[in-house]
Write a structure and sequence with these properties.
The structure is a homotetramer of 355-residue chains. Chain A is α/β, with parallel strands linked by helices. In chain A, 28% of the residues lie in helices and 22% in strands. In chain A, the strands form two sheets. A seven-stranded mixed sheet of chain A has the order 8-9-7-10-13-12-11. In chain A, strands 2-1-3-4-6-5 form a six-stranded parallel sheet, with helices on both faces. In chain A, helix 1 crosses helix 11 and helix 7 (150-165) packs parallel to helix 9. At the C-D interface, strand 7, strand 8, strand 9, strand 10 and strand 12 of C face strand 7, strand 8, strand 9, strand 10 and strand 12 of D.
Chain lengths: 355, 355, 355, 355
């Protein structure tokens, strides 16, 4: 058994990690860390969790983690992760960070979006960006893994077949993101109270979202395709879990709807967790985050806008559960690859729908 | 008192018209028409309505309408409206159609989007497009009024200050629309059942939306500004009433954020129902349809995306209640202008929030 | 015009009072008081409100209120109301308190449920309990009015025809209350964050609810009928506005379903705001709070449980909008009676449905 | 591997069975039956399901089922189940019916509540009532199992410690049930459309619910305790999955809150899926169905109402996921016992929360 620790156990991502790790057949949960919640049992903070998990949350010390963990998941804010990574790198065989501390490689971009997460360049460079579908074998044996943001995962998986696959030059990409309230975490903010969030379409980030920077930073490093302007606007809508990212793509390269569909199927062949779906294949239009709820799937649909005056727009839609494929599930998937386990291990749950 | 009739009384728009007309100080509700629901009382179909309205729904005959109405609202499907308009034009002093039958003036575009609504060109040309804020005095005394679609209203009000106001040339406009389930009307469709619609982000129209065609058709007739490609994608989200339209605009004309804000304030000065709002002026981000619920307001925000690589994108956000400013309220507002009443008459209700 | 002030303008009830008072044809809004929110404009705190109201929120002083108001609404916590009432009684022609400070007349019961709201007995005794439908002419000219709690209003209006009307002896009454999240007010509590409240059925008060005490205190003072055990459990469900109170009544008095229905209709004859409705009279089962949203209606249904072994149970259901008939609307209705205005003045809005 | 078939694959319960059975380590899904949906693949009807399940839905014939299944789950309406049971009993080693056809043993009660499900008495008597926690070893080897209704499961598990455990005589039991919209199944009913169901508190069964009859029928057969009047009222609230049943119990037997808590813990000791929880043990009040979403848990809380005039009321609250512990999960749990597998096999998923 691989001994696993989770730091930042009180937040939504921490709770989701406990949910997944505690049922993973190859993992043993050996450490739960959290400073503000030390002494509490997981089910007090996460009312759904099994009440018989056996572990209580402890204050974090590098020694305890190093002693008791083969892998540690950091579900901490970026500045905390930046500090913990220094303490734990090379003392724990694998550190998997779920914050934004190590997602953006380009220093100036990192500084622009995560000014409070100070990090050492040589440490940052060692982190593998953990989208298992796109980084090949880099994760095998990797000691340091940075899990992408929830939106970044959806957008990157949505656009990669266009750039990395087809090698298109995407002149303009406009991303419109719609997510549920769990994306905001468990913080006391007036605007997140139920009476003010229910029924809302909240334009919380109409311009400038750091996940867009993250996507650009990653995809532009790819060997094929280019991206010109990539902008994003993000909205909170009236549910809790799951997001849909829409990317409206303008390219001068000619490619029709059928080719796009085939290219996407080809690109994700053999990748269990990315489902390329036709828009009308079920009794509801897809992709829709309700069809991936609680699971590690990312559903992707690609369409060509053939309306007159559409300018040849390509519409890419990607839906995922922000706490699973957008966070804890993807972290476990990356860890599976790190330890050479089958990618689906511990992630076989199917979506809970209707819910 | 102006004698008012409503045809199509059983749908959501019909119900909303009853709600507004029955409380309008200058209107007397004299006719409720509906074929499938004939014989029923309004409160049976619309459980919230006053139970003492006095009128029952009757089968529709042109004679009855002509005899008893000074104004008639058609809350009927486009093909039915097209037929009724022929029968009622010139027999009733004012016919106000809330369907799409007479919204698009260009014949080919109409044919493309409303193939089942056959109409006579000479009748179609007489309809005034009823956005009161944008058509000046054309509504005064108008015998035939076509009320814009809900999305079309939001987008048109959002873009007009750029084209009609500033005279900009908008190279590319990408519209992303998010609306509640009431927009789909009261039809039995599996995908609209609560268990499948709750929690959804349903990409029901990822490419090609007829309201986009309507906006283009109207704005391109304006004397100032141009629009190149205008595309739209529409999504159903997990609430009932209200929509937010986001327009992402790319233009080569230089204009900064302050100028935009001033231009919008200037453009809508004196127009009570359009509120130009700063994004952060309240305890929730605006515009948000929850802040206009049940009212005739349309909240509009304009922003310049100053991120590097943003390509000078302008973000325009417009929120309204699809059943009020997007349908019944706008119809009453247009009628007020038609009969030279103050525009706010009968429309003074303020938003119901939180809800 | 009657000059009206509102103290506690930043909460949900305060916002709702502003919504109603600012449109009331006989009221002029002359004072908005609030200490923590002093200096803000109403639309900053209540994003839906008209942005052109003209008044800003001011710190509260008794002199200012006395000078500028003919009536003042206290939308303050009970302890604050208890203090303000002392300062304002006899200096303002009418003080209307919406807190629990003066609802329960019996001193021991008051002390049990509102220990922090210290009040003088002689002042407390002068307050009229403001359910306009049940207190006859006591409100006319009343200088001090206490507005019942939201649940208390629903339950009292639901049970009164049985006790005050039919004179029944109700051996056992079990109340089960279900309400939306706006009932909890605008406070930062973790359990009220959207991710934890959405989808919840939260048993927040499984035993012991002060509104039950309030109902007993009022109804037991009535001249007819008796109530033995009256218990209550209250739940928060997954919407924002509106509540349904179910009262399960066991009595040894014989009365059948028809008689009950007739008795309720008779009891509320001429009372516009209480609608006695048959369970199946519309396309949804009623009463349902969605059918009264935003309005001052209270919908009431009474049924006899004729199942074998049902013990002759009577089921009484009452639905209302907790911020309108359960708070601000009822306060305005009481004020209308106080100043001898028609009861419906300023309260003619119809429910917003669907929403 | 045990070969399993599912009939009625197109409904919510059918979909949930596919979700659970397809991941059960000891089951092989060998037959999917459905007449209206024959030819479709599961993921077309249940958009969340894995798209690679391999099986399509087939028309139902007894021969095919008998040949290919060791166990068959009937997720069919009661009249269909009654017919299928005749055809399949003794031809398939285990028939598990999830409808109401065989839940109520007393013939007159069955006839009262399921008049359309005609059944043979000798067949009905052979069905074991499948609440695994309450029927001891009766399920081991049972050829015919009837899975209780969702509400019946919650109420029975909630009350059993009082009657079967403590042997109390419950004079009066009033049950108030609150459930999400998935309980109504996937049928096209106007009242179940999203715009009319969202935000509702729908009193759909104010008197007379067949699950109450089912509970009485089962518990009154127990050797200890008695139940006098047991009534129920049921409400649909504004979420999709999960229910909370509240039982308000009046008894003349003396028992205090501590004794109750201890008795419940003792009664369910060793029963993994029933969690006896204190009301305030987590950051939200429990039991709340959101804390069991997607899992097979039933959370139970018991409280004594010590308010004056409460008449010694006992409040029992039970929450479960109506599609899991209230249907498909309990069916699998019963099947595990039938085939002498550990009870948790294939049911180890933890609740998905927040959602």
């Amino acid at each position: 058994m691989i001994r696993a620790g989770i730091i930042g156990a009180s937040g939504f991502t921490g709770g989701e990690l406990i949910r997944l790790v505690s049922r993973h057949p190859e993992l043993e949960l050996t450490f739960l860390g959290g400073n503000s919640s030390a002494g509490k049992r997981p089910a007090q903070l996460h009312p759904g969790l099994r009440t018989d998990l056996g572990l209580a949350i402890e204050p974090v010390t590098a020694d305890a983690v190093a002693e008791r963990c083969d892998v540690v998941f950091l579900a901490t804010p970026a500045p905390v992760s930046a500090e913990l990574a220094v303490l734990l790198a090379d003392r724990v065989p694998c550190v998997i960070d779920l914050s934004g501390a190590f997602r953006i490689r380009t220093p100036e971009l990192h500084e622009r979006w995560y000014p409070k997460a100070e990090r050492r360049a040589e440490l940052a460079d060692r982190f593998v960006y953990g989208v298992p579908e796109l980084v090949g074998d880099q994760l095998v044996g990797a000691p340091l893994i940075s899990v992408p943001g929830c939106y970044a995962t959806a957008i990157t998986l949505g656009l990669a077949p266009l750039t990395l696959g087809l090698g298109l030059d995407l002149r303009t990409v406009v991303v419109d993101g719609k997510s549920g309230s769990s994306g905001g975490g468990l913080h006391l903010r007036t605007a997140d109270l139920h009476p003010l969030r229910h029924g809302a379409i909240a334009p919380y980030a109409p311009t400038g979202h750091r996940h867009a920077a993250e996507v650009g930073d990653f995809l532009k490093r790819g060997r094929r395709g280019t991206i010109g302007s990539l902008t994003m606007s993000a909205y909170g809508v009236s549910h809790v879990r799951g997001l849909l990212a829409s990317a409206y793509v303008f390219t001068d390269d000619a490619v029709d709807g059928r080719e796009l569909q085939r290219a996407y199927l080809r690109f994700y062949k053999g990748h269990h967790f990315v489902r390329v779906r036709r828009h009308t294949e079920t009794l509801i239009p897809v992709p829709d985050p309700q069809a991936v709820l609680g699971s590690n799937f990312c559903d992707v649909t690609v369409l060509r806008d053939d309306e007159r005056d559409a300018g040849g727009r390509i519409v890419v839609l990607a839906a995922l559960d922000n706490l699973v494929k957008g966070a804890a599930g993807q972290a476990v998937q990356a860890m599976n690859k790190r330890f050479a386990l089958p990618e689906e291990t511990g992630l076989t749950m199917q979506p809970v729908m209707p819910a």
